[in-house]
Write a structure and sequence with these properties.
mainly alpha; 3 helices; 99 residues
Length: 99
């Protein structure tokens, strides 16, 4: 079995998940909870988004995207910014995803 570096033990755990567990326990006792701990929506994904995801997978979009974000998305962001009177160029826009 491979050895793990001792520094890995100092990383700890994701505390947002610990908060989620505690919040669900409070809910189980009948209390109302507004979840802000992990960014997971408390509603189902709309069907048109599910279908778009399935279509993208069937179209072979299964690889990592461009590091700065998809060019078409960056262009759409610039169009929206332009609509709001903010000038931006796609090569100056960076789309960061949260993992």
């Amino acid at each position: 079995m491979p050895q793990v570096a001792s520094r890995v033990r100092s990383l700890g755990t994701e505390t947002a998940l610990d908060v989620l567990v505690k919040a669900r326990a409070v809910e189980a006792r009948g209390r109302s909870v507004i979840h802000l701990e992990v960014g997971e929506p408390d509603f189902p994904t709309p069907m048109h988004i599910v279908e778009a995801g399935v279509r993208a997978l069937r179209d072979g979009k299964t690889r990592y995207g461009a590091p700065a974000g998809l060019p078409s998305l960056r262009e759409a962001i610039c169009e929206e910014l332009n609509f709001r009177s903010v000038r931006a160029l796609p090569d100056r826009v960076l789309v960061r995803t949260r993992v």
